[in-house]
């Protein structure tokens, strides 16, 4: 019999993404195992939760209004998918792309493995092409 995601697992996933909006990257230490794997790593990203904490800190410094909106979480016990949107104002050069001074929405799709209510692995794919495709939100 297939088990549903537990409430604890769902809350861990929400807190994982909430670290962006709350500007609390230390929350990753609560919801990720110490050897959590982020697949693939960004260029120069350290392994484990510290690597993503560093990315969050850097991204929020560049784009203070950055937030991740959870659109949908689905899956089964210890296996979850999340469809999210990274939103921010693109007012600084990023990845060699000149600023547009527009609010942008980057689709992010991730798959998580969990054990004992903590994330052990995350596979992700972001639609960075949105930065150059005029996909915006808001005013």
Overall average pLDDT: 94
Number of beta-strand segments: 5
What proportion strand? 35-45%
Structural class, by secondary structure, is alpha+beta
CATH topology: Nuclear Transport Factor 2, Chain: A
- Briefly, what CATH class? Alpha Beta
Count the domains.
1
Number of helices: 3
Helix proportion of residues, in percent? 10-25%
The backbone outline, from C-alpha atoms, is globular
Main sheet characteristics: 5 strands, mixed
How are the strands ordered across the major sheet? 1-5-4-3-2
- So, CATH architecture? Roll
Low-confidence regions: none
In short:
The chain is of the alpha+beta class and 139 residues long.
Q: How does this structure look, described?
A:
- With 139 residues, the chain is of the alpha+beta class.
- The chain contains three helices and five strands, in the order ααβαββββ.
- The protein has a five-stranded mixed sheet with strand order 1-5-4-3-2.
- A hairpin with a 2-residue loop joins strand 4 and strand 5 (118-126).
């Amino acid at each position: 019999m297939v088990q549903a995601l537990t409430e604890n697992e769902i809350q861990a996933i929400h807190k994982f993404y909430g670290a962006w909006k709350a500007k609390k990257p230390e929350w990753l230490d609560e919801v990720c195992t110490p050897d959590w794997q982020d697949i693939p790593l960004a260029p120069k990203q350290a392994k484990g939760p510290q690597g993503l904490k560093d990315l969050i800190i850097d991204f929020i410094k560049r784009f203070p209004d950055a937030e991740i909106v959870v659109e949908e979480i689905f899956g089964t016990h210890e296996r979850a998918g999340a469809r999210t949107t990274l939103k921010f104002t693109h007012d600084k050069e990023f990845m060699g792309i000149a600023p547009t001074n527009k609010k942008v929405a980057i689709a992010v799709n991730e798959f998580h493995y969990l054990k004992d209510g903590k994330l052990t692995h995350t596979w992700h794919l972001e639609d960075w092409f949105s930065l150059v495709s005029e996909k915006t939100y808001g005013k």
